[in-house]
Design goal:
By secondary structure, the protein is mainly α. Helix content is 74%, strand content 3%. Helix 2 packs antiparallel against helix 4 and helix 3 runs antiparallel to helix 4.
Length: 290
């Protein structure tokens, strides 16, 4: 009875081994259908289409801002010239006010010197009358010295008056010149402002529309990408932060782009920047260029 049970167990074990071997052979014969993960591929979490759309929106934003820059270029140096003229007008007005204050101070000083002369003359007359009633030589010498001293005071005051009058004349001449220059600059400022206002009025509607569209478009762009875009625009001379490939080169700095990098740009899998100038590079077809 025991021998019969052992024989049955051996048969069951053999059948199990045979079944396992058959399963392994069948698994080895079947092809592997599991997809392996892509390595070193910077793909946006929302999918390739979204990255491509971000690049399209970014290029549209660049185009709008370039149009705004062109409108500003039409104004040329007029805004700066107007600002400089405004600063010069304010400076001249301040200079005239300061000169006029200095002139008033000199007028006051001249008046004070004239008062000194009047007082000295009054004392001289008084001392001369007292000379007629002197009792001794000592009083005569004292009065004579006082008369002489007051005479010197009159001479000093007259000297100061001459100096102050000369300074006042110079100040008045400067005020007259500054006023003439101020009138000239105010006329120039008025002319420049009218010219600038005319140009602004012609382009204001277009500029406002472009700015409004640009603001709406900015909401569709990733904030980090938008910050990088604005930083690049400030750092480059012509304001072009997004460029497309032109003759196998960067459309901003015109340095050659390696073929493999061009292929990565055409795949539109990630945002690629120029290794020379830092501008964002896109495929020409994405920019609508054949």
């Amino acid at each position: 009875m025991a021998k019969k049970e052992q024989t049955t167990a051996k048969k069951a074990t053999k059948a199990t081994k045979t079944s396992s071997e058959k399963s392994k052979k069948k698994a080895a014969a079947e092809p592997i259908t599991k997809v392996q993960p892509v390595i070193n591929q910077d793909v946006d979490s929302d999918g390739d289409v979204l990255i491509e759309q971000k690049l399209v929106n970014l290029y549209k934003l660049q185009t709008m801002l370039t149009e705004i820059d062109k409108i500003k270029t039409l104004r040329g140096e007029l805004p700066l010239e107007v600002q400089d003229l405004e600063d010069e007008v304010v400076g001249l007005q301040t200079r005239i006010q300061n000169l006029q204050l200095d002139g008033k101070d000199l007028d006051t000083a001249i008046g004070q010197e004239r008062i000194k002369i009047t007082d000295a003359d009054a004392l001289i007359s008084k001392y001369k009358e007292q000379l007629d009633n002197v009792r001794n030589n000592r009083e005569f010498d004292t009065l004579s010295k006082e008369i002489e001293f007051q005479g010197l005071e009159v001479e000093l005051a007259e000297k100061h008056i001459r100096e102050f009058t000369a300074d006042l004349k110079i100040i008045n001449d400067e005020v007259a010149k500054s006023k003439a220059l101020l009138e000239e600059r105010q006329a120039d400022l008025k002319s420049k402002k009218e010219e600038l206002d005319e140009i602004v009025s012609e382009t204001k509607t277009q500029e406002d529309q472009l700015r409004e569209k640009a603001k709406q478009l900015e909401t569709t762009i990733d904030p980090r990408l938008l910050i990088a875009f604005k930083r690049i625009r400030k750092s480059v001379r012509n304001g072009l932060a997004v460029v497309y490939i032109q003759r196998d080169a960067c459309g901003g700095c015109f340095n050659k782009i390696p073929p493999q990098r061009q292929l990565d740009i055409k795949l539109r899998k990630r945002t690629i920047v120029c290794e020379h100038c830092g501008r964002i590079i896109i495929d020409p077809q994405l920019a609508g260029v054949e």
